[in-house]
Target: NUDIX hydrolase
Amino acid sequence: MPQNSGVGGSRLAATVLLVRDGRQGLEVWVQERVSTMPNYPGMTVFPGGGVDRRDFALVDENEDGVEDLWSGRPLEDTADVLGVPTQQARALVFAAVRELFEETGTLLAVHRNRTTVADATPFHADRLALESHRLSLTQVLHRGKLRVHSDMLRPWARWVGTSERGNTFDNTSFLAVHPVGQEPDGRSSETDSAGWFPPSLLIDGWRTGLVRLVIPTWAQLKRLADCRTVAEALAEAEHSDMTPVVGDPVDDPRYREFFTIDRPDRI
Model:
């Protein structure tokens, strides 16, 4: 089986629930995908996307070893929590960081002195190079003397599902705290609109037909809506069950509302 394959040969993917403490409580960053996207067009989603070969890339032989680009929770421990081999665990974390940076300009990384990147604007050219596949995240980190810090990405959920186009994804979601000093911008060719919202408001918008959600996003928003603050969300993440939810869990009472409610579509 290829190293970038998940359950049943599905494509690995990673998404990030970027959260902050807002004036009215916990907020999460979401974006509405443009209608021309091949998968999940017009849906409100978390930043993320498929794992590709760049996310497995190591640095060149004449450069520093890959271990210099990883800090925080040991890779082996991360793999155990995610329930995947170490190569896949590393690629999932790197894909999450890369996709978030490409789609929002938010860079979850630390300097060699372990301080968090507080201003990502000096790396804007690297963001564009990532989007155009001219660079890998490994190369961006090496050039900027940065490291991924695995503790900045808390495992949250894992869903395996098929898009309307028939593509199957094995998606791992991570919870991440909005880094102080940075601000997501939503300037991505894949994004129609984006912003910070209370999870409960997004669920209410879905109920009234103003927000389109797929079941994994809906389920994760419902769980997040029970958290009033970032601290509560981080505590909740410690209890994440990373067993894959495969297909549509129509018989699970936790998701009954999604499959049974008669809601309008006002978009």
Q: What stands out?
A: The chain has one domain: 10-260. Helices lie at 75-82, 86-104, 124-131, 137-144, 199-207, 215-225, 230-237, 256-260. The domain at 10-260 is CATH 3.90.79.10 (Nucleoside Triphosphate Pyrophosphohydrolase). DSSP finds eight helices and eleven strands in the chain.
